[in-house]
């Protein structure tokens, strides 16, 4: 018996791998976590592929990791997670709880925005730490994502900014708002960003509707992109990267 | 007509996704690039799954990207690549050539060691640039991978070192040799590594034989791990990461 944490990659149920499908077929319960990212699973097709029904679960359910792990003591349980399970969130907690409770927790990798972003033309080897831009609330506007950008810039590394895909007060954070917020913090701090700063914005990476835009800060601010959105502010660009970015101009 | 660059992830043919299999079924030629990483595809099973035979191709074939792209003018061609196609090598060249020749090049993401390494317990958001440790040759012992490590350390970021899986002079670079080489450069330069420096070594990530070892530099140097091997030297560890590393001790 085990808890199987299954990455579904960036797309829909057709992004499942053969070995993931084999595992799902032997599970007695299949949960889908859809709060950390936008997930596009067609439940009917999923059932046709695996013979299983999906139960959608929210943050509270998943964050009670101890309970979820212990439920796998006597049956095979699957938790479907967007992207690569250990890339963007704190699912490592399941492994810790598994060790404590002596219950097997298996992780099944899949495509992640963190590497799919290579499509934009920059070397993934030259990215620094990733910055998450949260959807701010009235009294909670953290600026810590700026520190990550500043550190990466200091050593010439590219920064990937992931924009929170969740709604707050009935509204998602747009690319324009995220960029303006970043600029506002920057103007109080290191002044690294100008209207000409090169920005690479990506939407729906790894999906049919995938879109990549390259331009100046002012140009990109005018783009209306659909979630999930991420953008990159490059560090030092080599010749190859400069050339590659031209694919999108 | 198009050139389809298909990431096969970290494992064997069972790591193919349903949409990748759909694409492969309509291709008239399927090439497998197996020089940038260790690939474990069972050709018989692959044929059973997709109905296609694989033609293994070497570096010269793949690096002649212009020719490969132009061959997709009149037929559907697939190139299978280990991991996520744009994560570790220079396959962006295909996109550039596709644009120049006005031939469609499509990329199909899959699992990559760059994110699967999250299994080790460190936050992927806190990794800096990736360092590749080449298998050195008599007259070619580059030290540039050290600069990457040094920059990451300067701003507190973790460093992932990928060890070249290829043979040079009939021999692969072992974990021990890679660590000793790194230490030798370090002792000439910044002296950031001691015998107690924490090292996380991973072997066969995402595969059945996956192994993760956490210990001091001296302890890990004694581990004999099978290729593909990577290791991490952490930057600043937070409380959660310290706890997570204990899974492997």
Please provide a written account of the structure:
The structure is a homodimer of 249-residue chains. With 249 residues, chain A is an alpha/beta fold. Chain A has two domains: 2-111, Tetrapyrrole methylase, N-terminal domain (Cobalt-precorrin-4 Transmethylase, domain 1, 3-Layer(aba) Sandwich), CATH 3.40.1010.10; 114-248, 2-Layer Sandwich (Methyltransferase, Cobalt-precorrin-4 Transmethylase, Domain 2), CATH 3.30.950. Helix content of chain A is 31%, strand content 20%. The first copy, chain A, is built from ten helices and ten strands. Chain A has helices at residues 18-25, 43-50, 59-63, 65-70, 92-101, 113-116, 144-154, 175-188, 217-221, 239-245, and strands spanning 2-7, 29-33, 55-57, 77-81, 104-108, 131-133, 159-163, 198-203, 211-216, 229-233. Chain A has a five-stranded parallel sheet, sandwiched between helices. In chain A, strands 6-7-10-8-9 form a five-stranded mixed sheet. In chain A, a hairpin with a 7-residue loop joins β8 and β9. The longest helix of chain A is centred in the C-terminal third of the chain and has 14 residues, at 175-188.
**DSSP helix count of chain A?**
10
Topology order of chain A in helix (H) and strand (E) letters: EHEHEHHEHEHEHEHEEHEH
Tell me the domain tally of chain A: 2
Quick check: average pLDDT of chain A?
Answer: 94
Assembly context of the chains: homodimer
Q: SS-based structural class of chain A?
A: alpha/beta
DSSP helix fraction of chain A: 25-40%
Q: Based on CA inertia axes, which overall geometry of chain A fits?
A: elongated
**Spatial ordering of strands, largest sheet of chain A:** 3-2-4-1-5
Give the tally of β-strands of chain A.
Answer: 10
Between the first and last Cα atoms of chain A, what is the distance in angstroms?
51 Å
Q: For this structure, what is the CATH class of the largest domain in chain A?
A: Alpha Beta
Low-confidence spans of chain A: none
**Beta fraction of the residues of chain A?**
15-25%
CATH topology descriptor of the largest domain in chain A: Methyltransferase, Cobalt-precorrin-4 Transmethylase, Domain 2
CATH architecture identity of the largest domain in chain A: 2-Layer Sandwich
Q: Biggest β-sheet of chain A: count, sense, barrel?
A: 5 strands, parallel
Q: Largest interface: which pair?
A: A-B, 57 and 57 residues
CATH homologous superfamily placement of the largest domain in chain A: Tetrapyrrole methylase, C-terminal domain
